[in-house]
């Protein structure tokens, strides 16, 4: 692909446009250029945005996984066009050869970013500060970056948490993204990422998820479970409870419904009034979930209900007993709710942010709302598996930007039962 | 079906059990017994719950829609068994022949009902107070009933709003339910209720919904639209905006996402970064929704953005201009959110309760969360049509108890476009 | 419900219409009137069709499952109206009190019924011949009835098999239907029939299906499996093979695809080119299915491939080894096809008709085409369970008239794996 | 990407393995290397299959759409490994620099290919014969290639049509594939290809399909409609009939069901017994489809029924009147069937092969069976749009290899109605 000095561009603008209005710059790309299709993507973007390019240096690693390097000259019709192209390429993983420091302006309005703020992705990001590239902390998509010049520390900040005077990064200069590479360490994991279909060998998927849970624990990271009430309706609660008891799950994000039906099952043996044992609706069973909530509210909450001996089994019980970091986030469809439910959604998001700090693997089961909410908060390098019988839930999660998500279109109960059984063959370290 | 004095029961318990432990009572059923299948259902319940019955009086109306009447003697093995049967039959529309007044006990704990509280349905309910049946107001499922003895007024109260000392109805005595009849005035409406399938004549459904909107407005009731962001993604926002402008919609329940993408489209021409006009992703378009929220937060909210001329088109714009009762309820997946979004879910529910007071027809489009939340609040006599391309959303709504819901499995944009066109043929009264 | 001599009708036609044009008749209903909602349905139909009724006799059984009896007088404005009502009521299980013999006319055209032919349902049907009610044999929906006066035998005949001169029943006179009752022997089975949702306790469903398989075998009836290729794609083939080997399945209906991918897995370890073991696409694996077909065609068919030692495992192998009645029906999407595939669809239907003769339970897994085809052939009293991850397949089957179908919305592999394991706990009698 | 003489390989085998066992070869790639990601894909494949590469020549076109060229040296551990790599690269569009002629062997068994046959894709393919590359005719996936040495003509042949002695191409030598490029002429078309989701701007999709129909007709090619019975059930038949009448459709593939319900609607106003006008089930309407089939069989077929004046409207009527190439293919779920239905599936496939010869655009609506069958026959350069409310149908079509398919997840009736209206704005040329 050695450009022999001539330029590649859409309309040979070099002749048509006066040189004075032209502008040029240079970017570098590093990484698995062949493998990750980075280089063609970047060249393609330059051309699409009306620029032209010249490959000035290109080294390809000896092996597929060796890093490669390319330096690319870019030309466009105006400095504005060059800026737009550079801003775009930065998101695709290129970085300017002669970078500037990131620019910050103080926030002028509380709870809003200044004009022109840099809007984050969930990819690993760095900002240039006093000539050095520093990592942005608390990486999260759809935030701004606050850069503390005194401490030399940059981190993501949600819009609603902006206070007047906060130094917020604006523009794309001095910001670079280190894009994720395609997963290669585990081919099992790789196979699942291809597309969303229920017609795939299922036991392979299962082993892959079990392996991800094990290796996450072995690496000292937390496993996060995000679950919807279908876990209880389908009779999967005992299997989840077992996984908690055996140390496989360190954090649980759910809503009032999962917690309520889990407690309903523990107190009455039903879920939404349907007997889990016999599969039939029970007389007045549809009231059970409300009576369960009422009982827990009367007891002063889930933790107290466990301590007082009212609640003696189930997912909530095991969470209390094994100090799982439990975040129950409220929604407008909640009955009650249970006392532990955080009814303010911004407060709930903040608790979720706290809880994901050391999460290495997230398993999202049968909930679109909590899965998307969690996906919004997770950095791109946390592995995510989303299990749902409805392919639309998985598709929606990817559409919203959580690209690292691997979707398993399968039925919840058999999956959770088999996963618990698979994990039980070798206990968690602790 | 004249029982000739002998009893019908599962095991002829009259012989096996000593008479002393037996118990008996009598219930009445009124209404469209033939048409609504009430009588067989009630007889079936008695037998299923271990009782036996004797039909003591039975008058069938001359026409299908004339009210009928039946008086049924019930026997069971114990007073407790009779109580259980009576409690069950009350929910199916039977009422004791010799009723007592409803019993109340004062709430002993704030935010929780007393033990044994009567748990409401969304059907029209009456309580007996000083020998008279009075209507329960603010009918809503999964609430308790507070009965003010001074005012002689009963109304539904959500658990979380209970204050210590509130007189709450307990048990089933003195409570009766007047079950909804099957819809008959409109056969078009009737046809749609059969089951959830996409393979039905579609133009009939459309005319039925248009007719329901018109007749609701003609009756001086409000039309409520509950919508998800797919309305904007699919390019349906202009059609919804037109319906608002023309006076067909009086209340709108939605979340941050619908409002954000509507504003994104108005400001940038995109929805989730995809051009509505050309259907293609725009450069950096994925940031547009965040920039739209930021712009509105900087402006001080949607209403101010309309007043200042920043926001000049779209659903939100029309809501502000035409005084639509707009409730934007927060959720944990929200970015921002927009200033008008109510982030506390209990506060949002209360605003929704207020707004549904005069609603005669609710149209739920492409949102599971807001649809289920709304379904939880609506009494059974408000007609509900749920439009979604995913049959699971419709099924879920019915499973959660909103039985009056008619599901239309269809694509949002063509449906909304055609509905707006159909309604435009004859303008709303006001 | 004793009508006291007065009539119930929509518009009191007795006054409006001259008596001379009126007509009347009488029908009987027997069976579980209370339980099956038969009586209200019939009264409702009479009124809907413009008639009026009078209940002349009504006896209700002592227990829920005891048979009841009602005799109902019907009036309408004309003999034609009475005929239409009677024809309708017959399908709902009523029968005329003063019946005539069934009328037959000889078929005038080969492969078509005479005008006015009686069109069958899949319910148990009888025709009146020389004053006696005789059972119609080979009950199948959407057929005609051929009544052999010499042998006094009636049976269903498909349109395409009509030969000139065949005596075909016309009109509704002398035909009666004995409607199925709701299943009650097994409450587990009952629970599943409520509606199509994936949110149900799954292990209950599984035990119910296993129990149905066992009781069918214990009763000396055949179990029929109807399966699609997703059985192989999802890695379920070994479990199905095990069930065949252990004597649980006597007949298998499938298409070229299931057989091909099963053989592909046996020969190459892949299904549609994806390794079942590792879950990854294999180099050139997409060609494997074609090479598998080619190999079997070269060998002279599946049976010969087993005999020659080419094919040594899998579903097809076990079918050959255990004399399962295998019907591979062709479709236009077939590659090859395999030599055993019956490419003429009418011939395939005839083979399926033969094979279902002694089937007591049909398990339909992951195939819409073969499931609907089988559903068309099965009488209403054969229990059918349809397993598919897509709720639309189940809905479609019911919409097409196979009302006895119980739908399980679940994932194929875990279901089949667990079913095989459950059945393996106690072996089949033989 | 100029390889500076050193090799890139997974494990530096040059040292470990004795040179004598090594093998090498050279391939060329031409086309839009940057744009189509061809080059990285090919390099990736070489490494994955255990080979190493050296880029020996590389010219990149000036513009994105200009052709580029690369010559790549390949090394592997054995001649067999080189062969496997070459075979694989051929499918990805590379071709050997020093090619041989294609090898043929005569078929030894009727209806089966010889061992080692070349299995075709649906991409444009050429075979080398006497030193020249000749186009393979009747391109179709999952066939073999018969090469007539006398005529110098190569064409695809389905397995079942092989006769003893036919010269069949074996191995990959002398075969090359010219891969399709990504569509670029129409960005509208491009946008739709991204993924399968119902949440996209719908009117853009509609205009794209209308434009494809128009441009196909303008180019003198045929438009093929492949449709399922939901077209009739949803009330879309009149719109399809209009499109046929106005000259937009030249070929129609369907089954007995679409034809039957279309005729049922014409004769009785119902589809599956449901009134299209009023949306309600009609008395005895479920028999209508059988009576419709019977009437057509009595008339001697669809064409005769049109000629005799029995059938006067609908899709079938318009097909007869406007000489649409109608292929009704049988399936095992058919009632009747209608006389024009081809009940032998191999005969039906052959008729479909004939009919697609000049098809330039295929619109597949609401049928999985006929869509997959058609997809199997179409070469990759025929544009395909698949419209279904169920995303699984679209996914399945792509999984089966018809990669050029663009899926529209939308409701049939509004789509077809709007398409007919859009096309009616400017009439077809002929």
CATH level-4 homologous superfamily of the largest domain in chain A: putative lor/sdh protein like domains
> How many beta-strand segments of chain A?
19
Beta-strand residue percentage of chain A: 15-25%
The largest inter-chain interface, given as chain pair and residues per side, is: C-D, 52 and 52 residues
Question: What's the assembly state of these chains?
Answer: homotetramer
Euclidean distance between termini CA atoms of chain A: 52 Å
How many DSSP helices of chain A? 16
What's the arrangement of strands in the largest beta sheet of chain A? Answer: 16-13-12-17-18-19
Q: Which blocks of ≥5 consecutive residues of chain A have pLDDT under 50?
A: 1-20, 182-194
Which structural class do the helices and strands of chain A define? alpha/beta
Q: C-alpha Rg of chain A, in Å?
A: 25 Å
Helix content of chain A: 25-40%
Could you tell me the CATH topology label of the largest domain in chain A: Rossmann fold
Mean of residue pLDDT values of chain A: 84
Count of discrete domains of chain A: 3
Mind summarizing the main beta sheet of chain A?
Answer: 6 strands, parallel
CATH architecture of the largest domain in chain A: 3-Layer(aba) Sandwich
CATH class of the largest domain in chain A: Alpha Beta
What spatial form of chain A do the alpha-carbon principal axes imply?
elongated
Keywords for this entry:
19 strands, 16 helices, 3 domains, conserved putative lor/sdh protein from methanococcus maripaludis s2 fold, elongated, six-stranded parallel β-sheet, Alpha-Beta Plaits, homotetramer, alpha/beta, 430 residues
């Amino acid at each position: 692909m050695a450009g022999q000095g001539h330029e590649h561009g859409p309309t040979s603008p070099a002749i048509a446009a006066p040189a004075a209005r032209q502008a040029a710059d240079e970017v570098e790309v590093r990484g698995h250029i062949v493998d990750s299709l980075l280089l063609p993507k970047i060249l393609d973007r330059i051309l699409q945005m009306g620029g032209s390019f010249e490959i000035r240096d290109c080294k390809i690693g000896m092996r597929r996984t060796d890093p490669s390097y390319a330096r690319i000259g870019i030309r466009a019709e105006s400095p504005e066009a060059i800026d737009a192209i550079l801003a775009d390429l930065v998101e695709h993983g290129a970085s300017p050869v002669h970078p500037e420091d990131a620019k910050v302006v103080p926030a002028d309005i509380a709870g809003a970013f200044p004009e022109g703020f840099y809007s984050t992705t969930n990819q690993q990001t760095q900002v240039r500060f006093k000539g050095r590239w520093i990592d942005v902390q608390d990486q999260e998509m759809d935030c701004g970056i606050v850069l503390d010049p005194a401490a030399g520390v940059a981190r993501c900040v949600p819009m609603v948490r902006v206070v007047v005077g906060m130094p917020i990064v604006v523009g794309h200069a001095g910001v670079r993204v280190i894009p994720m590479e395609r997963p290669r360490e585990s081919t099992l994991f790789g196979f699942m990422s291809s597309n969303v279909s229920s017609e795939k060998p299922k036991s392979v998927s299962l082993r892959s998820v079990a392996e991800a849970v094990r290796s996450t624990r072995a690496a000292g990271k937390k496993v996060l479970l995000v679950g919807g009430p279908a876990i209880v309706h389908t009779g999967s609660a005992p299997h989840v409870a077992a996984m908690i008891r055996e140390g496989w799950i360190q954090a649980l994000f759910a809503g009032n419904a999962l917690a309520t039906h889990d407690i309903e099952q523990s107190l009455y043996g039903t879920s939404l009034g349907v007997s889990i044992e016999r599969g039939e609706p029970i007389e007045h069973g549809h009231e059970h979930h409300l009576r369960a909530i009422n009982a827990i509210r009367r007891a002063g909450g889930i933790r107290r209900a466990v301590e007082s001996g009212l609640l003696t089994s189930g997912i909530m019980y095991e969470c209390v007993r094994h100090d799982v970091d439990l975040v129950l986030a409220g929604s407008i469809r909640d009955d009650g709710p249970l006392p532990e439910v955080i009814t303010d959604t911004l407060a709930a998001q903040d608790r979720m942010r706290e809880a994901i700090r050391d999460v290495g693997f997230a398993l999202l089961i049968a909930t679109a709302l909590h899965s998307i909410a969690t996906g919004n908060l997770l950095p791109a390098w946390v592995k995510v598996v989303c299990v749902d019988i409805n392919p639309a839930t998985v598709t929606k999660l990817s559409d919203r930007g959580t690209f690292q998500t691997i979707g398993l279109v399968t039925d919840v109960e058999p999956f959770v039962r088999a996963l618990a059984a698979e994990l039980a063959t070798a206990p968690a370290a602790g």
